[in-house]
Here is the input.
Amino acid sequence: MKQWWSKGVTIALLAWASVFPIAGFTQEASEPVAKAHIAELAINGPIGPATTDYLKRASEKARTQGARLFIINMDTPGGLDAATRDIIQHILASETPYVTYVTPAGARAASAGTYILYASHVAAMTPSTTLGAATPVQIGGMPGQQEPSKPPQQEEKPSDSADTDAEEVRRDEEPASKATPDAGSAMERKVINDSVAYIRGLAQRHNRNAEWAEKAVRDAATLTAREALAQNVVDIVAENRADLLRQLPGREIVTEAGTKKIDKSVSELPVVAYAPDWRNELLGIITNPQVAYILLLVGIYGLIFEGYSPGAMVPGIVGVICLLLALYALQVLPINYAGLALIVVGALLIAAELFVPSFGALGIGGVAALVIGSVMLIDSDVPGMQVSRGLIGSIAAVSGLGLLGLLYAVGHSLRKPKVASNKAMVGRTAVVSALEPDMLVKIDGELWRARSSVGVVEGQLVKVVAEEGLLLTVTPE
Here is the structure.
């Protein structure tokens, strides 16, 4: 027996080795040989957590496979502040140069895209593209919506006495409310000044136009590709990728490893595109505010239905999975916790209408809380990073129709004539299910003990003529 067992183990090990060779040789054979190339990445649409994950993972993969230069093709309306800063930190910490290229024609590097463009080692644009409008939008919108504060140098006036007198008159005529800015405008200035310092630091690092960068933040200024090149905002305007690669050699850049020049041999390397993998695609779908909102509602209602019908299993399993996915997505999105709480309370109130009929009071309050919480849920004005008003309206309409159906059912049951409990089954039709040892009849899936003064057979239709506790008296129809 022992000999047989040892032979079996030996055969199993040989079979395993034939399929999975020794790890020291397998890893070398499975991993592709690093070959120098240019890695091409892409930022399309709003910048969010999925974008950051894609750029970091794709860059690390490309670097291990021999990437000597990164080209980021960008077309974005902006994005979330946290995700943008993560991308910029990744670019600044890289010893491999990053070239951010706003393309194709008609593309833009607005808001967060402008910051990434300034942070890149080489900034390039295609003709007929734009950049700018980098004014930060505070979560929930800028309080007061006042005009952006002007730079200190623009507020200085000559020391002419006439101008001084006129300025004093204007100050006297201003209302007292403007003399002391409110908390909202103070917060606005803090956010704008922080963003100005941030983008000026990026501009000074790569010797680009810091004054225009400040104007893009304070005044939401924009430029076309040709204007950006003329004002030293970008380094290159290229018709296509081939034109871009022709203009790169000899340019001096500042990386984490120090100042160096892009060699001509680098620009002649083959270009390899790195598309998002399944993990990035899944993360992009989950962190979409529309999908996260739907997953949240499905998760909440799934758990409520499981509590309403214990043992159903499916609503509980689906609810738990959807709720966990929704919570993962919401923890990387800028959410308003008051809105999240209102959604949960609204769903619970609607469900409570099923258990404690209040003739619409709980249900109407629940729908109102659900709608208000849905509008407040995502705290961002970035395009593509909000819950669609159409989706919120659809959810509210479905919840309202469900509530109306519930109220109709309750009202219909109240209008039914009252029947004594000992006559509830009288007049019902049943089917004879068994005759021995006791006669049993089935009514709407329920088995009742019965008796009959007339002979009946199994499967025969009978009519209930009397009810005594749990015993029915029946007669053939």
Q: What stands out?
A: The chain has three domains: 32-147+192-278, 287-415, 421-476. The chain has a mean pLDDT of 79.
